[in-house]
Amino acid sequence: MIYKSYIAGLLLRVLLLLAALTGIAWGIVSGNVYFITGGAALTLILLFNLYRFLTRRFVAMDDFFEAVKYRDFSRWFSEKHGPQDLRNLHKGFNNVNKTIKAINNERQAQFVYLQKILEMVDVGIIAYNLDTGEVLWTNESLLNTLDLPNFKNIGFVEKRRPQLYTELFDTYRTEAVSVEITLRNEQLKVLISETVFQVEEDAFKLVVLQNIENTLNQNESDAWKKLLSVMTHEIMNSIAPISSLAETLQNHIQNNQQNAELHPLELDDLNAGISSIKKRSEGLMKFAKTYRSLSKVTHLNLEPVKVGELFKSISDLMQPSLADKPVALHFKTENPEMAFEIDSYLIEQVLINLILNAIDATREAEKPKIVVTASQNSKGRVQIKVRDNGSGIPEEIRESIFIPFFSTKKTGSGIGLSLSKQIMTLHKGKIQLKSDAENGTEFTLQF
């Protein structure tokens, strides 16, 4: 027990004091002056010793608490002098001081790291006291972006640039917004987000400002450069089956013209082929218009479509393109009469994209196969799956395939899957992916 010696010392002094008092009492009873005088002197000495014995501990604790009050953790208490219990007490105080100093050093190091990191980021950051306006912290990026010198209070900005003060500090926003601010007689577009936090009784506001002018300009430039190639790629995806089907019909007509007996003309097949070309051409026109302003589309041309009819339309378009390829394309559904409301032209575009991707993925397969199935999930909603037995999509890029312009193909635009996802979003649905090297890839359209 750490304070065993303290208790023993206290008990000994109390017993000695009782003995001295007993001697005084015996001297008074027996009339012995020596006992009375000696006992009184010894009692005074013992009382003074007991007082010092007790106060030394309280003085040590008072010194320690005083140091804590003023956050002076550099104080060192002697561990080699004085009674054992007092040395143990000093040792405990020193351990507390060392621990607090270590914590402070760690916090200081973390603050320095954080400060260096925030200085390096290309985002302006400022935190200030809401009541006093005193700046708690700001970085160089904010000062450079706003063309301001280092300031200690936001009142400086209010006096120098009232309009900027209003935009940054006097306007409260619940979410990040982009605003235009005037700097050096130029308009600068920035993204501003803010939050308020409490530290004890003080409220602080953290404002984050990012210059998005250059980013927007670069993105706009890149988008314009890629727009033509993207549109060409997507249109070609639809034109290829149309062209192939038209060529097949033309060959039938030419063969019939050369020898009508050997090559009779099937009017039903001819009519079905022309209808498919007409329907897909209309869909292509609708797609081109939708792609041009996809972000502004708020209304779809929804109509009840039977799964069997949708699958037949896709099959008629794709079969001529697959005639010279070893890929087997199958359409399966338990209920061809199952109907759901969609924009058939746009959903056809999604399925064509997925099938063409599947054809490309099965090039190295021994028996390439693509299966398109339609069913209802547990909630009664229609879902269409496009599955292939190809090489699968590597795990490291699965999260990136829906990003616009991301492509692993040399001739790919990287817009097909992104556009497919947007079309499904317009239908208030979603597109999901499952893929592995052994079983191939499966895309699920959930409506």
Describe the structure.
Keywords: ATP-binding, Membrane, Nucleotide-binding, Phosphoprotein, Transmembrane, Transmembrane helix. This protein is an alpha+beta fold. It has 11 helices and 12 strands. It has helices at residues 4-30, 33-69, 84-120, 140-146, 155-160, 162-168, 213-258, 267-292, 307-322, 344-361, 416-426; strands at residues 124-129, 135-138, 177-183, 186-199, 202-211, 303-306, 328-333, 339-342, 369-376, 382-388, 430-436, 440-446. The strands form 3 sheets. The chain has a 5-stranded antiparallel β-sheet. A 5-stranded mixed β-sheet has the order 7-9-10-12-11, with helices on one face. Strands 6-8 form a two-stranded antiparallel sheet. Strand 1 (124-129) and strand 2 form a beta hairpin. The longest helix is centred in the middle third of the chain and has 46 residues, at 213-258. The radius of gyration is 43 Å and the shape is elongated.
Q: Give start-end ranges of low-pLDDT stretches.
A: none
| CATH top level label of the largest domain | Alpha Beta
Q: Please indicate the percent range of residues in DSSP E strands (runs of 2 or more).
A: 15-25%
| String of helices and strands | HHHEEHHHEEEHHEHEEHEEHEE
Q: Main β-sheet: number of strands, strand sense, barrel status?
A: 5 strands, antiparallel
Strand order of the largest sheet: 2-1-5-4-3
Kindly state the mean pLDDT as a whole number? Answer: 80
Gross CATH architecture of the largest domain: 2-Layer Sandwich
Number of strands: 12
Q: Briefly note the CATH topology name of the largest domain.
A: Heat Shock Protein 90
Helix share of residues? 40-55%
Q: First CA to last CA: what distance? A: 73 Å
Structural class: alpha+beta
Organism: Leeuwenhoekiella nanhaiensis
EC number: 2.7.13.3
Protein name: histidine kinase
GO molecular function: ATP binding; phosphorelay sensor kinase activity
